[in-house]
Amino acid sequence: MKGLILAGGIGSPAWLRSMAAMPLGLTAGSVGRGVSCADSGAPLSQPASSSARVTGIVSDERDKTGSNAMWGGRFAAGPSAIMREINASIPFDKALWREDIAGSRAHAAMLGVQGIISGADAAVIDAGLARIAEEYERDGVSEDWDLEDIHMTTESRLTALIGAAAGRLHTARSRNDQVATDFRLWVRAACERAEAGLEALQRALVTRAGEHAATIMPGFTHLQTAQPVTLGHHLLAYYEMARRDRSRFADARARMDECPLGSAALAGTGFPIDRDATAQALGFARPTANSLDAVSDRDFALDYLSAAAQCALHLSRLAEELIVWASQPFGFVCLPDALSTGSSIMPQKKNPDAAELVRGHSGRITGALVSLMVTMKGLPLAYSKDMQDDKPPVFEAAGLLDLSLAAMAGMIADSTFDTARMRASADAGFATATDLADWLVREAGVPFREAHHITGAAVRLAESRGVALDRLPLADLQAIDARINERVFAALSVESSVAARASYGGTAPVRVGEQVKAARLSLGMDD
């Protein structure tokens, strides 16, 4: 990945090399007090101890260092308590502190190179921002609601550290392009985390599919026994879903690979900035082409949420199957103890809680997509304050998705499958009925619709006698249709049925083995 990590390569400008150690990604527990990678911006409720609790609609002129002071002389009085509470985003957007500092360091360095601010001021600003990053990493981000958001929080701290030079940092930018850049960086990293989580799940699926390429189990339609398949084939179906999910996150990341920084409030700036330089420093392929679009665009967040919702849907389907398979009537799988819980009253219980939570999280992730779509649907250009509500649903969805992917990869890797139970279940439900119909078509030249009718009569007879199709005497089968002969029994075992499905993409063990080999090669597991 391009960006600040790689900015120190040979031939890079000095101001790029000086930023090479600045990481952009989030790690668990590193985004401030009360915030982690898992909840990414939560808690969304404000603390009871905050000075900004609503006590009535009042005019408050006490604070001259808060956001109104930042805005200059436009406002004679400070905001009311209600305005402070509805306007503050620091409880959740503090999750963007790494991205905000990285963007500010890139911007200050560019301003210095372009001569818009002095080199000395650029260096002092950069050192101050580096120190703030250390503080945030160590102590978390404070929540002063009068400062509103992570941008003013950081700038206020910078002013306290370096004095008047801090006021030069905001030259040729606005909070509009600042937050658009920060948020895009954060979502880009979320896409990369999702791809990594999906790859881990794929590796677990492929490993277990290889182990069970010939393990026979019933295949279902309408949750009714349909035809026998192999467990390896079943697991590879989810590998394919994960492969498509990875492509959606990769596509989303490719579309968001443009840097809004330098678009300013909405119209660009009159200062001679170098937008290509800041885009390169932050790891983007190029700057955005239209300043109006750049500050008002949240397609990148919707792309991420759309991919996340589709991915969560697939995880939910897999979770549902594991839940059903782990139930006593099925008994196909024993889920790992580490991802199960017990009952407070029934000591025999082993509940598939992790799988159930993954299934439940899918609804919340889908809700996050709908929430942001409704927020954005009627907004005129360019920026509107409604867009402050863009981050909580994305942060929540990302945290839930990261957890869900990790949980499902762990379940697949560490579950124990009861292959004997699966094999016995495949014998039930007349799973080889289609094989009898196919045999009549192939060996006796019977039209398929007629063969279907003959097979239905055979199933009815077997059901009345409580036996499998291959346990019916030949005489009874011939009484249904005289064209049936003794060779039919070779086609009626579940092993024969599975082996016969050897078309490309079919469940035959030979085909499953081929698909496992191709998947391992694609994932670099056999390098």
Instruction: Count up the helices.
Output: 20
Average residue-wise pLDDT? 86
CA radius of gyration: 30 Å
Helix content range of the residues, please? 40-55%
Estimate the global geometry from the Cα principal axes: elongated
- Please provide the count of β strands: 6
Largest sheet: 2 strands, antiparallel
Question: Between the first and last Cα atoms, what is the distance in angstroms?
Answer: 22 Å
Q: Any key phrases for this structure?
A:
527 residues, mainly alpha, two-stranded antiparallel sheet, two-stranded parallel ribbon, 4% strand, elongated
Mind explaining what this structure looks like?
There is one protein chain. With about 525 residues, the protein is mainly alpha-helical. Helices cover about 55% and strands about 5% of the residues. It is built from 20 helices and six strands. The chain has helices at about 15, 65-70, 80-85, 90-95, 95-115, 120-140, 150-160, 175-210, 230-255, 275-280, 290-295, 300-325, 355-375, 390-415, 420-425, 435-445, 450-465, 475-480, 495-500, 510-520; strands at about 215-220, 225-230, 260, 285, 335, 415. The strands form three sheets. Strands 1-2 form a two-stranded antiparallel sheet. Strand 1 and strand 2 (about 225-230) form a beta hairpin. Helix 5 packs antiparallel against helix 6 (about 120-140) and helix 5 crosses helix 8. The longest helix has about 35 residues, at about 175-210.
